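seq as requested:
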Amino acid sequence: LVAAGVRWYAQSRAEASARQFYGANELFKREQWDQAQKDFASLASAYGGTPYGNLAKLYAGRAALNASKPGEALPFLTEFVASPPSPAFEQIGRIALARALADTSNVTGAREQLDRAMLLDGPLKPEAMIRLARIEESDGSKEESIELYKQYLTDEPDGSAAPLARARLLALGVQPPAAP
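struct tokens:
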């Protein structure tokens, strides 16, 4: 009886968190950033131990970033990357955290998060590489940015940021590889 009660309780929490996540995600899709952030934060607080509660931390941070509130995004994203559900989600979280850190003038922290994101097995390695190249360039690290832009073009010659990488290389006085 006790085991059935525990199972019912866990299942009801999982269902409640899924419903709340769906509602907050609808706000996120409609770009209602402030309300989405509040709803995801509430979900993360109430159901942090559930999969949706954990994922809500990432979304609360991303909503805060989209609302131009990087300082508010930092605690959610920091907590999320401490226990992500998978390497791909960790990569997404680290890139978002790097953006929040860069937007709050913590370039060193942003650089560290992007370096770590590039080491993870996930779909956003090229995005992490371009973001890191931009940070290196704006911080005056010309050689590092050139190497990152070149590496991006080697790995993703048709990537969405390939025109940007080629333009930045030209601006830095380096002839980029020809477009495929």
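The chain has a mean pLDDT of 93.
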